[in-house]
Structure formats: C-alpha cells, structure tokens
Design goal:
Structural class: alpha+beta
Helix content: 10-25%
Strand content: 25-35%
Number of strands: 22
Largest sheet: 5 strands, mixed
Distance between the termini: 140 Å
Length: 387
C-alpha cells in the first residue's frame, strides 16, 4: 500500500506584500461633508420658504380677486333693479320723502335719516372722495308694483270719517296688508310714506289707520291728496346703502320697514375693499346716449331724468403683507375718452385715468400690498324702459 502523504495547508495570506492598516474619514473630510450638508439644507430651506411665500401671495391675490368681483356683483345686482315701482312715474323723481316711525321723522327732517330722503333710484354720497356711499332705492314687491291714481272724494287728514282713513283709488291692484306706500302730488311737493293697515276688501280703497307706535302717526300723511295724485307701492322697501368701513370692509345697511332703527346696524359683506367710487352717467342732451359722468347729485326733476347709468370702481387689497415693496404707484381707473368725466382725469397714454389713492386709505404700508381694480358701467334699466 502506498503511504498517504499529508497535504500541506496553504498559508492564510499568500501575498508577500504587507497588509495596510484599516482607517476611517479624516477630520478634514468630515468637516467638508458637514459644510456640504449644511449648504444643501440651506438651499432646500430657501426653496421651501420661497415656494411658501409664492403660495401665500398667489392665494391672497386670488382672495382679493374673488372679494372684488363678488362685491361688484352685489352692488351691480341692486343697481340693475333700482327705481322699480316708481320710475314709471318720472314726473315724481326728485320729490323729498317724508316719513315717520313711532312719531319721529326717519327721512327728511331727521337728524340722521334711516330712510331715503329723495325719490331717486340711486344717490351717491361723495363726501369722502375715496370711499363713496351708494344708496339704492326700489320697491321690494315680489310680484308687481304699479302707480295708483287717487280719485274723489280724496284723502284729507283733517276731514271726518273715512276721509282720513281711506285713500280712494282707481284700483288697488297689487296692494297688500303691510305695504309701505308713498303719496305724491308732484316732484315739487313732498312725498309722504304710510303703511297699508288692512288687506283691501273693497275695490278702489286703500286703508290707512293710525298706528302711532309704528308708521302711521296721527294726521300723517299731512297733505290732502285728491284726484290725479299718485300712490307708489314700495312693498317692504328695498333701501340699500353700500359703504366701506374703517377696517376696509364693504358693508351694507338694509332698511327694515318693520324696525327702521336696525338700518343703523351694517352687515359686513366682503373684506379688504379699500376704495369705492361711483359716478352718475347722464344723458345731458336727451339723445339717449350717456355723455357725462360726474358725482353731482341732481336737485331737480329734470336732473334726475338725465341719470341713465352708474359707473362703479372698486379696489380690492391683497391680505398678504409683502416684505419688499410690490406696489410702486397708486392704481389707475381708466375712464376712456368717449365721454366727459368729472373730476377731470389725467392723460395716461392714449386714454384718460383717475388716480385711486390707496396710499391715503390703506396707510403707510400701502406699497407692501397688491391691488386689483374692478370697474363696470351699470345701466338703470327701469329708467331706460320708462324713457
């Protein structure tokens, strides 16, 4: 038998080269890695901050656009119906309105009127040049409101029996219990408000009884209304006043026929509205075309008949305060060159513009906000149909 020759075990390390010692990162390498990491974190943080800032700016700009558009729509909707119920009697436009509630004057003669003081579709109060007050008046009858003619034997507050409790009319069509009506003789005389106190049961009669604690004070209406005089049916009365508050919120004061005192309490509508300006659109030469825009409130019947439209501008402010100056100049209201405009606009390129002074309404930080201008012309449909 052959002897088994044991195999020689191979050495663990066959290389004759020396083994290099195992080592980690040096301090310099660690510091470089930390600096790179910090720079990367800083860049990512800056990108996120810029992205968030842009997001807030975009969101705030969208809010301003929505607030401005909705505010303009709210005013426009009311103005389109302005004058419903009484502009079909244009000869009465401009008559001063007298009304009493709980024995006290609430219209002409009141210290602070809560009811309209003149029979007109819209009245612009421009005592604050940047923040006008726009008052809209119309009948709030849900069905129809038509002028009614008074007939004999007349209404006489100093008379006896039914003379001071009944208005004899050709027809009481559309009249309901609780309607507010205006008794009118002419635009040069006073228009007096009273409430219908009973549902009409006799054709040709409208009832008016004394209700001292509400509308019908004793001996009011005060004038004798006879053949040919007119009764206008305002229903529950749409008397809306749009204004901007000190906190840059578009507010609405709604007249309440059941409680006129509540007209002093405004309802907040849309925030961040900083400017509201309005102009009467007038047809001064009776050719059916508006040729003049101004803020001069008519004082005569002929002047009110000239008013055919209203031009409105609103400026909405972004709610986002920007660190840098983003608005370098006041926004402009482009009023064109086709019509005469007062106050006189300045030239801006090929057009004419009115400066909208947000710098005086917003405050010292006004340049750190963005603004959007909304402009429209609203025809007074009921006056146009009458003409």
């Amino acid at each position: 038998m052959k002897a088994r020759i044991p195999m020689q075990q191979a050495p663990l390390f066959s290389s004759t080269k020396p083994v290099r010692a195992m080592r980690g990162f040096t301090l310099v390498e660690l510091l470089v890695a930390v600096v790179i990491g910090l720079l990367t974190t800083l860049v990512v943080a800056q990108v996120l901050l810029f992205s968030e800032s842009q997001k807030r700016t975009t969101t705030a700009g969208t809010d301003a656009q929505l607030n401005g558009a909705q505010a303009l729509y709210a005013i426009q909707r009311d103005l389109q119906m302005a004058g419903y119920g009484f502009t079909s009697s244009p000869a009465l436009l401009g008559c001063p309105i007298y009304a009493k509630y709980n024995g006290a004057d609430i219209a002409t003669g009141a210290g602070t009127p809560t009811f309209a003081t003149v029979l007109a579709p819209v009245v612009i109060d421009a005592s604050d040049a940047n923040r006008n007050v726009v008052q809209v008046l119309s009948s709030a009858k849900p069905s129809y409101a038509i002028p009614l003619q008074v007939i004999l034997p007349s209404y006489n507050p100093g008379g006896a029996g039914t003379l001071k409790t009944v208005f004899p009319v050709t027809s009481n069509l559309g009249v309901r219990l609780g309607d507010i009506m205006l008794a009118a003789k002419s635009n040069a005389s006073r228009c007096e408000a009273f409430k219908v106190t009973a549902a009409p049961t006799v054709d040709g009669e409208i009832n008016r009884a004394d209700e001292v604690a509400t509308w019908n004070a004793a001996l009011f209406p005060t004038l004798v209304y006879t053949f040919g005089d007119i009764l206008l049916n305002l229903g529950s009365v749409l008397d809306h006043r749009y204004a901007i508050s000190a906190t840059n919120t578009l507010q609405l004061r709604r007249f309440s026929a059941s409680s006129p005192a509540t007209a002093a309490t405004p309802t907040d509508l849309f925030p961040n509205i900083v400017i509201l300006q309005a102009l009467y659109g007038k047809d001064t030469n009776a050719d059916g075309i508006v040729d003049t825009y101004d803020q001069v409130t008519p004082t005569t019947n002929a002047g009110w008949i000239q008013v055919r439209s209203v031009r409105i501008v609103l400026v909405a402010q972004s709610s986002q305060y920007e660190k840098d100056v983003v608005t370098s100049a006041n926004p402009l209201w482009d009023v064109g060159t086709a019509t005469t405009v007062s106050p006189t606009p300045a030239t801006c390129g090929a057009s004419k513009c009115i400066t909208l002074n947000v710098n005086t309404t917003v405050g010292t930080d006004w340049q750190h906000y963005r603004y959007k201008v909304f402009d429209t012309v609203i025809p007074l449909i009921n006056l146009l149909w009458t003409s």
